[in-house]
């Protein structure tokens, strides 16, 4: 080998090693390029326009509001798994985004998350946040997480489809079933939805059938150990879900082939009268119910069997939780960010541009809807109504929020009942076994009591 | 001599160290964790003996996953092997164009699984805008995506994986076939062998070591398969495409039952070990020689 070639290779290897070392070296004090302390937040891989909104409304605003910290948000498609692995290794971002209180409990118990009680007192979070949501973030009496947004199950409907077919907005489950039968007879989907790419979508339907068919008090009693999950009312609710699936009420044969995005597009395209799903779907509706047809979209809470349409029940849930990493070096700064996110100002600005994901669970919610688009107004109204209903105790339970992890997995298997792979009774026996084990491990979040 | 020995040890040290760090230690830890109730976070998991194994053996989804893995293995040691072998034999005679064909056949294999899965999900299986949607909505055919039925989903996912994999087997078999000594082929042809006899008595014995190792690798990979199943169905609908890998993944990342996930992983390793034993047994004559 020629000497010059050897030298060239040697230089290249040296440069590569230096580059690798620089790339691998971490900034030990967590300081940003302008000397500010860097606070990191990993967030799910939201669409680009929503990422821009978050940057402008949260990141830029926070960074301009003070000189000490610099907030950096990373958007990751596998955020749940990334956070689980990082936290287990004592690493991860300063602000921990989690999929719900039951996700938080194991990490809180392992001291991977910082108790937030001091900050809650300092910023008055307990007085500002809805009691039931605040309590759901506590573990063994200490606060570990804040729900970033309320989320409830409801019916998105296409007003034009209903009007063209002389169908009234349904007030009862019977109304709903009649319209779905008629829609299928006309070659429409009875409703559109699907779990393509994300099996946990099933939790929405478990939550709907438990809250609105088994009833909120029945579920409360099961969650607090006063009833078994094998209770006939709960088993019957699951049977009903299977009946709906088999009749084609849940997107017919396409349940496994549709995403929420595709489903809401089908609703906008007048291929179905309804879409049953969580209120966070408003964020997808902005892409399909565009300016000229935005007035076609309507949203109502899901009716409860034997319930009143004047006082509907709401499936109480949060879209995500926010906590502080116990290994963070900038806990005070992270708490400042959380405090900023728990305000009317933040909620208004985010909802105006990103409806569906920022229904901050504030007791004293003040939304300036006159500055909002039709879609944002509709979402804001649904959150107002939900808060009113929750404050009156008219709420059931979102399984992803209030059910412990292994039991939640059993409930996610509701599609096995739909596909005749297991009976409702057997599935609930399995759920009960997993639930008992989870409770024994202390993995059950605090359960708020609904109105009788 | 001493110096040479030291140099040899020094040279194998990096690979030994790597194997120790990323294979042996995690392997031993998995073995230990399988007998605990570790949730992946707690610092002091409890030893629970055989409870994890007992629970997974009582779970119908475990047996369903095992059966699916077995079905998957049977599909993969037959369909892509036959297609790959057949195509390789056909390409053997196309001396000029075979490079181009190999490139085309290998194309799905070099694409990322996520890309292939999205392509199939959105362009083929999509009931609104895909081929399925076109046949259903525009041509009025009574058709649904095979991914939506518990009876067809496994075959649909396997088809996509086979579509991506068979080209690789073609290239491997073709490379092996081309190593067959020319004099043996000529002699056989002079003796009046027909094509089948030529394959059976000359080509196949020549590629048998390659064929055996690929067969074992397919069996091992079949019990480890994860990507296409996770991307296309996530194990659904109703666990109809659940594999041991997706079953373990759910325990580890969704149910906070890492101990149970480790026990499933251990079971998967045993399957791999059995396949390796099969390989040793198949190649014992070669080893003796």
UniProtKB/TrEMBL annotation, chain A:
<protein>
    <submittedName>
        <fullName>Extracellular solute-binding protein</fullName>
    </submittedName>
</protein>
<dbReference type="InterPro" id="IPR050490">
    <property type="entry name" value="Bact_solute-bd_prot1"/>
</dbReference>
<dbReference type="InterPro" id="IPR006059">
    <property type="entry name" value="SBP"/>
</dbReference>
<feature type="signal peptide">
    <location>
        <begin position="1"/>
        <end position="28"/>
    </location>
</feature>
<dbReference type="Pfam" id="PF01547">
    <property type="entry name" value="SBP_bac_1"/>
</dbReference>
<keyword id="KW-0732">Signal</keyword>
Automatic annotation (TrEMBL), chain B:
<feature type="transmembrane region" description="Helical">
    <location>
        <begin position="210"/>
        <end position="231"/>
    </location>
</feature>
<keyword id="KW-1003">Cell membrane</keyword>
<dbReference type="InterPro" id="IPR035906">
    <property type="entry name" value="MetI-like_sf"/>
</dbReference>
<feature type="domain" description="ABC transmembrane type-1">
    <location>
        <begin position="66"/>
        <end position="279"/>
    </location>
</feature>
<feature type="transmembrane region" description="Helical">
    <location>
        <begin position="251"/>
        <end position="282"/>
    </location>
</feature>
<dbReference type="GO" id="GO:0055085">
    <property type="term" value="P:transmembrane transport"/>
</dbReference>
<dbReference type="InterPro" id="IPR000515">
    <property type="entry name" value="MetI-like"/>
</dbReference>
<feature type="transmembrane region" description="Helical">
    <location>
        <begin position="104"/>
        <end position="125"/>
    </location>
</feature>
<keyword id="KW-0813">Transport</keyword>
<comment type="similarity">
    <text>Belongs to the binding-protein-dependent transport system permease family.</text>
</comment>
<keyword id="KW-0812">Transmembrane</keyword>
<dbReference type="GO" id="GO:0005886">
    <property type="term" value="C:plasma membrane"/>
</dbReference>
<dbReference type="Pfam" id="PF00528">
    <property type="entry name" value="BPD_transp_1"/>
</dbReference>
<feature type="transmembrane region" description="Helical">
    <location>
        <begin position="72"/>
        <end position="92"/>
    </location>
</feature>
<feature type="transmembrane region" description="Helical">
    <location>
        <begin position="153"/>
        <end position="176"/>
    </location>
</feature>
<feature type="transmembrane region" description="Helical">
    <location>
        <begin position="9"/>
        <end position="35"/>
    </location>
</feature>
<keyword id="KW-0472">Membrane</keyword>
<protein>
    <submittedName>
        <fullName>Sugar ABC transporter permease</fullName>
    </submittedName>
</protein>
<keyword id="KW-1133">Transmembrane helix</keyword>
């Amino acid at each position: 080998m020629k000497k010059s070639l050897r030298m060239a290779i040697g230089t290249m290897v040296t440069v590569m090693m230096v580059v690798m070392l620089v790339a691998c070296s971490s900034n030990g004090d967590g300081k940003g390029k302008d000397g500010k302390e860097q606070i990191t937040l990993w967030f799910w891989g939201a669409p680009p326009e929503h990422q821009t909104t978050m940057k402008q409304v949260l990141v830029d605003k926070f960074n301009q509001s003070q000189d000490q910290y610099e907030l950096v948000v990373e958007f990751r498609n596998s955020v749940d798994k990334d956070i689980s692995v990082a936290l287990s290794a004592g690493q991860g971002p300063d602000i921990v985004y989690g999929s719900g209180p039951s996700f938080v409990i194991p990490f809180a118990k392992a001291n991977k998350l910082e108790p937030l009680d001091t900050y809650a007192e300092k910023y008055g979070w307990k007085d500002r946040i809805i009691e039931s949501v605040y309590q759901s973030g506590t573990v063994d009496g200490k606060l570990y997480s804040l729900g970033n947004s309320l989320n409830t199950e409801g019916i998105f409907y296409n007003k034009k489809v209903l009007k063209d077919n002389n169908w009234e907005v349904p007030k009862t489950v019977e109304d709903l079933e009649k319209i779905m039968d008629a829609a299928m007879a006309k070659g429409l989907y009875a409703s559109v939805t699907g779990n393509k790419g994300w099996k946990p979508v099933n939790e929405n339907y478990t939550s709907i059938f438990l809250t609105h068919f088994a009833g909120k008090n029945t579920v409360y009693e099961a969650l607090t150990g006063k009833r078994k999950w094998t209770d006939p009312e709960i088993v019957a609710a699951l049977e009903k879900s299977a009946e709906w699936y088999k009749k084609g009420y849940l997107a017919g044969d396409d349940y496994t082939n549709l995403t929420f995005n595709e489903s809401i597009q089908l609703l906008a395209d007048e291929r179905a009268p309804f879409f049953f799903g969580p209120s966070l779907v408003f964020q997808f509706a902005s892409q399909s119910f565009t300016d000229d047809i935005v007035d076609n979209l309507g949203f109502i809470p899901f009716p409860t069997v034997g319930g009143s349409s004047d006082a509907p029940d709401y499936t109480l849930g949060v879209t995500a939780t926010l906590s502080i990493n116990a290994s963070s070096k900038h806990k005070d700064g992270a708490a400042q960010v959380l405090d900023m996110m728990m305000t009317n100002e933040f909620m208004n600005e985010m909802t105006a541009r990103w409806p569906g994901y920022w229904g901050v669970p504030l007791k004293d919610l003040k939304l300036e809807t006159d500055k909002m688009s039709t879609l944002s107004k509709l979402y804001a109204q649904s959150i107002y109504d939900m808060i009113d209903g929750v404050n009156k105790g008219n709420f059931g339970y979102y399984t992803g929020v209030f059910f412990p992890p292994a039991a939640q997995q059993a409930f996610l298997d509701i599609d096995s009942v739909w596909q005749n792979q297991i009976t409702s009774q057997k599935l609930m026996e399995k759920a009960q076994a997993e639930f008992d084990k989870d409770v024994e491990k202390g993995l059950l979040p605090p359960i708020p009591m609904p109105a009788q | 001599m001493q110096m040479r020995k030291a140099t040899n040890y020094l040279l194998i040290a990096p690979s030994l160290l790597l194997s120790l760090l990323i294979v042996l230690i995690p392997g031993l830890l998995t073995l230990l964790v399988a007998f605990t109730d570790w949730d992946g976070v707690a610092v002091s998991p409890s030893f629970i003996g055989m409870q994890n194994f007992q629970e997974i053996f009582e779970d119908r989804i475990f047996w369903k996953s095992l059966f699916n893995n077995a079905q998957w293995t049977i599909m993969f040691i037959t369909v892509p092997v036959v297609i790959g072998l057949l195509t390789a034999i056909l390409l053997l005679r196309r001396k000029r164009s075979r490079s181009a064909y190999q490139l085309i056949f290998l194309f799905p294999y070099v694409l990322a699984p996520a890309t292939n899965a999205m392509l199939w999900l959105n362009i083929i299986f999509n009931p609104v805008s895909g081929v399925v949607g076109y046949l259903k909505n525009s041509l009025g055919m009574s058709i649904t995506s095979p991914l939506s039925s518990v009876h067809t989903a496994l075959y649909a996912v396997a088809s996509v994986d086979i579509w991506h994999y068979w080209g690789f087997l073609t290239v491997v078999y073709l490379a092996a076939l081309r190593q067959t000594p020319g004099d043996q082929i000529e002699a056989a042809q002079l003796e009046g062998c027909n094509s089948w006899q030529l394959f059976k008595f000359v080509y196949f014995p020549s590629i048998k070591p390659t064929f055996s190792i690929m067969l074992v690798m397919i069996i091992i990979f079949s019990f480890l398969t994860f990507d296409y199943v996770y991307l296309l169905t996530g194990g659904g609908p109703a666990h109809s495409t659940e594999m041991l890998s997706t079953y373990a993944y759910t325990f580890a990342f969704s149910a906070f039952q890492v101990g149970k996930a480790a026990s499933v992983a251990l079971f998967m390793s045993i399957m791999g070990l059995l396949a390796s034993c099969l390989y040793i047994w198949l190649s014992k004559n070669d080893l003796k020689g």
